[in-house]
User: Which sequence fits this backbone?
């Protein structure tokens, strides 16, 4: 089938602002949007820039706005989109070229929640024990691939880039509810602050955007509750 | 721009992050240079597990793990490496757990373990539960956990910096040159010690489980500079690549009870490996699948694949323990593994060969193990040689943490007593010239077209089965492709994120590593592990119980030296399962 692929392009060396370019691409229904972008880049216009690595939804490189929704280009098939497909960079982060955005603000928020196990007690000789139920408690957050789909679909983040964003809260959740961790108070400093969890307006965009089907909004609510419980 | 750090690690996958972490713990000033953002390295795609004789589910011993590794490697494994590995991987898994890695758990709270190909108890008698796992996302969890620790230790990252040169002078490693993708600027990195952990090169093949970015960059750069590549002829095909894409479906699926079937519905592995059947090592299973197809028992309209049957497993096992591969089948093929078998075919997966190193990750330049001061390698980029002629499943994740740690520690200690070397703008010259040549070329050859020809021809002539005739043909094809590569041109003349330029550079690396692989394969006139020569079907210990060191002479010319295999407690024996 013929697909019309419209891509929002921006080259900082040439362009004042982004503009649309349209490509006609021969595609199979089972092709991924990533395959279409490759067809354009490899055989029509080599200057088209986008990130990708693993090609099957594990590395999180190719999050983009596809037909108006945040998705991974490698996990989105042509058959689910039809023959007119629009592709734009994810919103709320500075565009560096075409579909590539600056990820640094995103990772700064990630680092702010202390995304690592905090436990100063000397570890035992063998593994720390943890029941399957305790392990299950924080399983959802461990699926996160840091693709930024959730954070860049959040209207609060668009309006105010200092909001720590869903992805960082998911990372915090992953440790707050880990029975081995002792660092939740340290994390609550960033999470309970003005740019922390209380900015969340429960719009559910993040949950819809997550390509790993993490119930992001629910995890944010659980973090809010944990902070409240800690206060009273 | 110029930078200096005592230890610079190239690559931010499992081996690189482990090396960085342990170098930092030794007190060194450490930086990581990666062409990707962290957590996007391909370690994250590893699914099934990390093998270690924890003995959490049943009796197990490091000696059994060592034996399985040596036998799995068809006795080309260096036994000193296998011994260090089998012992230290136990401690490494415990350390990962202490770092916060969310392993799945047994009811008693210990780390859960499952069965995997080629891992046995009692010296080969039956499969054993040895693979510690976190659902089918074990690599993802390892990568995330290691990056988390790097954040904790404030390690410096140069993200999206593509290394274009390793500066080697007077036989000493002095620094690196890297292209900053965001700006197109070349940066000079001074280092006392460099650890190369840049991963594999599965993109030489058309069907591969590997990321688009796995193009053997650093192997090729060192090879061009006259350093050898070891055992490149041994390239692993993973039996269960999702047909026809090649996306990996973990061996853990067979560890949990999955069965391979041909068009007649037969469990054909019973014929090839009667003792451990579908859990035979990857080289054996891949060959068996090819033979089934060749003999007309393949599935589908083209009769060109087989089926992985999970339908007899309890649905909760599939959903809980294999959620990702279940999703892959559903998304990419519209096949629900709960209800119908999944089409699979071997997919290019892992390079057993690479940059030769000592047990401490020091890069060596000859058969006498002469080290290159200040240069280290670990992970898939390296060849220690733990995996010999065929790597066992779960041993790559173990390799990363065991030998990544050793390389990081040794590099930091080396750096303590070393001085920085003087580097000047002139050291950027070679990289600048190469980049300008590609950007200014008016040639008519296109990167994508050349790459597609390379990948298809490597698939046809140098994959699971090889013959002298096919390999010779591929030698000629590679010569022609290398010649045409000199005339490639690109559309993008800009500086910011010139990913077309990066792909052009990567194609050059793919051609170099293909050259080393094909010549090494043509040179080795025996069948061993993943290297199956139909014109030399037997293993030949008398002539070939040795490692190949391939040196580039010029394009299309390669010379060889040989290194003895380090033997030890296990005598080479015929390899049956």
Assistant:
């Amino acid at each position: 089938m013929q697909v019309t692929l419209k891509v929002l392009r921006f080259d900082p060396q040439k362009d004042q602002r982004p503009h649309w370019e349209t490509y006609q691409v021969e595609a199979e229904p089972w092709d991924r949007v990533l395959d279409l972008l490759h067809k354009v880049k490899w055989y029509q216009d080599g200057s088209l820039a986008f990130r990708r690595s693993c090609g099957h939804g594990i590395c999180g490189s190719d999050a983009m706005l596809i037909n108006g929704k945040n998705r991974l280009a490698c996990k989105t098939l042509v058959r689910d989109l039809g023959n007119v497909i629009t592709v734009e960079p994810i919103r709320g982060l500075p565009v560096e070229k075409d579909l590539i955005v600056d990820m640094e603000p995103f990772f700064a928020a990630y680092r702010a929640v202390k995304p690592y196990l905090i436990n100063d007690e000397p570890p035992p000789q063998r593994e720390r024990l943890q029941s399957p139920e305790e392990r299950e408690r924080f399983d959802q957050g461990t699926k996160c691939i840091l693709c930024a789909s959730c954070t860049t679909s959040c209207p609060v983040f668009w309006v105010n880039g200092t909001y720590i964003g869903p992805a960082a809260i998911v990372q915090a959740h992953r440790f707050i509810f880990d029975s081995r961790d002792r660092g939740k108070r340290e994390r609550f400093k960033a999470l309970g602050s003005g740019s922390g969890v209380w900015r969340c307006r429960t719009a559910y965009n993040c949950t819809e955007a997550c390509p790993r089907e993490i119930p992001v909004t629910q995890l944010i609510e659980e973090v809010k509750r944990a902070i409240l419980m800690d206060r009273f | 721009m110029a930078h200096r750090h005592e230890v610079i690690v190239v690559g931010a996958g499992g081996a690189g992050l482990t090396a960085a972490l342990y170098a930092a713990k030794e007190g060194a000033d450490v930086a990581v240079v990666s062409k990707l953002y962290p957590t996007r390295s391909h370690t994250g795609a590893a699914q099934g597990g990390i093998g270690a004789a924890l003995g959490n589910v049943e009796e197990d011993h490091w000696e059994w793990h060592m034996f399985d590794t040596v036998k799995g490697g068809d006795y080309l494994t260096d036994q000193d490496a296998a011994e260090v590995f089998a012992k230290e991987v136990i401690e490494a898994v415990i350390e990962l757990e202490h770092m916060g890695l969310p392993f799945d758990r047994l009811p008693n709270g210990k780390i859960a373990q499952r069965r995997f190909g080629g891992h046995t108890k009692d010296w080969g008698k039956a499969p054993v539960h040895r693979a510690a796992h976190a659902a089918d996302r074990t690599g993802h969890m390892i990568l995330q956990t290691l990056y988390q620790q790097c954040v904790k230790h404030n390690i410096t990252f140069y993200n999206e910096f593509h290394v274009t040169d390793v500066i080697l002078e007077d036989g000493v490693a002095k620094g690196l040159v890297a292209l900053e993708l965001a700006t197109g600027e070349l940066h000079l990195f001074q280092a006392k010690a460099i650890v190369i952990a840049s991963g594999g090169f599965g993109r030489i093949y058309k069907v591969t489980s590997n990321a688009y970015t796995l193009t053997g960059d650093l192997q090729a750069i060192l090879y061009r500079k006259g350093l050898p590549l070891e055992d490149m002829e041994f390239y692993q095909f993973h039996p269960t690549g999702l047909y026809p894409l090649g996306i990996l479906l973990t061996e853990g699926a067979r560890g949990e009870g999955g069965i391979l079937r041909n068009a007649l519905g037969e469990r054909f592995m019973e014929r090839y490996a009667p003792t451990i059947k579908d859990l035979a090592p990857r080289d054996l299973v891949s060959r068996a699948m090819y033979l089934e197809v060749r003999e007309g028992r393949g599935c589908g309209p083209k009769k060109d694949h087989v089926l992985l049957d999970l339908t007899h497993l309890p649905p909760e096992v599939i959903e809980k323990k294999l959620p990702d591969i279940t999703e892959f089948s559903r998304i990419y093929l519209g096949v629900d593994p709960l209800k119908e078998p999944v089409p699979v075919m071997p997919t290019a997966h892992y390079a057993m060969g690479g940059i030769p190193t000592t047990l401490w990750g020091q890069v060596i330049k000859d058969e006498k193990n002469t080290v290159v001061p200040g240069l280290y390698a670990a992970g898939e980029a390296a060849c220690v040689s733990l995996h010999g002629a065929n790597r066992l499943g779960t041993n790559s994740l173990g390799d990363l943490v065991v030998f990544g740690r050793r390389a990081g520690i040794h590099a930091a200690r080396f750096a303590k007593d070393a001085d920085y070397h003087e580097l000047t703008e002139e050291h950027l010259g070679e990289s600048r010239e190469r980049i300008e040549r590609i950007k200014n070329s008016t040639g008519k050859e296109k990167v994508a077209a050349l790459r597609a020809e390379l990948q298809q021809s490597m698939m046809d002539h140098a994959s699971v089965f090889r013959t002298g005739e096919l390999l010779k043909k591929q030698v000629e094809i590679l010569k022609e492709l290398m010649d045409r590569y000199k005339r490639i041109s690109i559309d993008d003349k800009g500086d910011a994120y010139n990913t077309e330029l990066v792909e052009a550079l990567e194609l050059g690396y793919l051609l170099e590593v293909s050259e080393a692989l094909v010549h090494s394969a043509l040179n080795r006139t025996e069948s061993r592990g993943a290297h199956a020569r139909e014109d030399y079907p037997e293993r030949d210990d008398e002539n070939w119980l040795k490692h190949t060191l391939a040196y580039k002479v010029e394009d299309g010319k390669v010379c060889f030296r040989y290194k003895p295999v380090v033997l030890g407690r296990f005598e080479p024996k015929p390899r049956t399962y």
